[in-house]
Design goal:
Helix content: 40-55%
CATH class of the largest domain: Alpha Beta
Radius of gyration: 23 Å
Number of domains: 2
Distance between the termini: 49 Å
CATH topology of the largest domain: Rossmann fold
Number of helices: 19
Structural class: alpha/beta
């Protein structure tokens, strides 16, 4: 194939289209959301390629193929579905991915369920993904695999005889050695990862954790720390790097300035007049630290009475896996805390300290909440990155917001110079940060938020893709070229943001 014909093959757990029942009994597709889809669509549309993933429906019928074919025609690239059964999803996704890898990689090993049945399902489903890749790709294609559900995929492809370069990016954290050691299949999983040629992590911390595990557990490799390369016994070199993912900051900024968002934000503020609005937005998950956040807010109201009737916490919780007992229990605990705190502090004049929202928000509502809030309280126990923090900064177009951020979020490395960093386990420390944010002078707010907004802009989601593929080129992986106009010129970008931040 010529260089122009070489394709990018993106592999992720889900396809970038969501299927739903149509009016005629068939299925209709709509584009998925998220930074990965936003960043890779321009590349795939410009150069052509394949996206491999599960279509979201376990009953794989002709209607699924028809809906995906329609979406393919609109998108300009090929969608390759992986057919999974309900049993596959139970063992591979709900089981091993989210009852073993998810808690373990977030340093919550006590929540892991190391069921061997889950492991066998995980291996089988990774094999199914490999079979679809083998049937849908050419040897010259550049294959980029995403996230913790597909850690074994390179090993499956190598076993099938694939010799072309394979790249991988982990969107969640990688645990330190003492926690990784708890995994019964630690050697198999680590050696499978080393079958990739380029491995990317969100932060330098995650990269170092991985390298430490390799150095300790794999005895037939050598590591070049200066170049972050692992030299394999078969002569291959595996490059390892950190590539912090970003957002489409300019798009969030534009929407934050739109009349619809301004009107919605004004309505929110009018409903809660003369208040400092503190915002938390989280998916229902135990890694987000919502109960500890609510406890810290209660401590703040108790220790700093001047906050009473002056602040309101808007806590948005997006439903997720609430059919699982552990998540149902978490939801009940959150609701119990909200009730306790509101019961303790609500005043007859109408002040209610916490406004609790349990539903998914569309993009306009989300940006309106960001625009209306004066303070964002982003306190995960551990996160790969946490894009809510970056989205809030991008939407703070008046540079008057304050970001309180967990030091255990991946975003803390980039946003530490403008955010108020807290340990989410330290209730009094977080309470003091809330009080400090509320009392912060306008000039300091503006200075800090401008630092944050510049940092968010510098690492956009497009530059993340660009940086990863440039690393692949530097590693002689023959990476897929980007469209010529994929990134704005440095001059245009600097002019835009200098004007925006003036």
């Amino acid at each position: 194939m010529t260089e122009r014909e070489r394709r990018l093959v993106v592999v992720s757990n889900r396809l970038p289209f969501v299927l739903s029942p149509g009016p005629d009994g068939g299925l209709v597709s709509r584009p998925g959301s998220g930074g990965l889809v936003t960043a890779l669509l321009p590349v795939l549309r410009d150069r052509g390629g394949v996206w491999v993933g599960w279509p979201g429906i376990t009953d794989h019928t002709e209607a699924v193929d028809a809906a995906l074919a329609s979406a393919t025609g609109k998108a300009g690239y090929h969608l390759a579905p992986v057919a999974l059964t309900a049993e596959d999803q139970a063992g591979f996704y709900h089981g091993f991915s989210n009852e073993v890898l998810w808690p373990l990689f977030h340093d919550l090993q006590s929540l892991c369920n190391f069921d061997p049945v889950y492991w066998r399902s995980y291996c089988e489903v990774n094999h199914k993904y490999a079979q679809v890749i083998l049937s849908e790709t050419y040897k010259d294609d550049f294959v980029w695999v995403h996230d913790y559900q597909l850690l074994l995929l390179a090993a499956e492809l190598r076993r099938a005889g694939v010799t072309s370069p394979l790249a991988f990016f982990l969107h969640i954290p990688f645990p330190p050695l003492d926690i990784y050691l708890k995994l019964p299949w630690r050697f198999t999983l680590l050696r499978a990862l080393l079958e990739y040629d380029l491995i990317g992590f969100q932060t330098l911390r995650d990269q170092r954790n991985f390298m430490h595990c390799v150095r300790t557990l794999i005895d037939d490799v050598s590591i070049s720390h200066r170049s972050s390369q692992i030299h394999m016994p078969d002569g291959r070199q595996v490059r390892v790097g950190s590539f912090p993912i970003g957002i489409d900051a300019a798009a969030f900024q534009r929407q934050a300035r739109s009349p619809a968002v301004i009107a919605a934000a004004d309505t929110l503020r009018a409903e809660l007049p003369n208040r400092e609005l503190i915002l938390g937005v989280d998916r229902l998950d135990y890694t987000k630290g919502i109960p500890l956040r609510l406890e810290a807010f209660r401590v703040a109201l108790r220790q700093f009475p001047d906050l009473q009737e002056r602040v309101t916490l808007i806590q948005v919780v997006v439903p997720s896996r609430d059919d699982i007992p552990q998540y149902r229990d978490l939801k009940l605990r959150i609701e119990q805390l909200v009730g306790e705190i509101n019961g303790e502090f609500t005043r007859p004049g109408g002040w209610v300290p916490i406004h609790y929202v349990y539903r998914a928000l569309d993009r306009l509502d989300l940006v309106a909440y960001y625009r209306a809030a004066h303070i964002a309280l982003v306190t995960p126990l551990k996160d790969g990155m946490n894009l809510v923090a970056k989205e809030f900064c991008a939407c703070s177009v008046d540079s008057d917001g304050v970001l309180i951020l967990s030091e255990f979020a991946g975003a803390a490395a980039q946003l530490q110079h403008g955010a108020l960093l807290v340990n989410p386990y330290d209730l009094e420390g977080t309470a003091e940060a809330i009080h400090r944010a509320c009392a912060m002078p306008a000039a300091e707010r503006r200075r800090r938020m401008q630092l944050l907004r510049r940092a968010v802009n510098r690492q956009s989601v497009f530059r993340w893709v660009n940086g990863f593929l440039e690393a692949a080129i530097a590693s002689d992986l023959d990476a897929f070229p980007l469209p010529d106009d994929y990134l704005p010129s440095a001059e245009a970008e600097h002019a835009y943001w200098d004007t925006e931040l003036a």
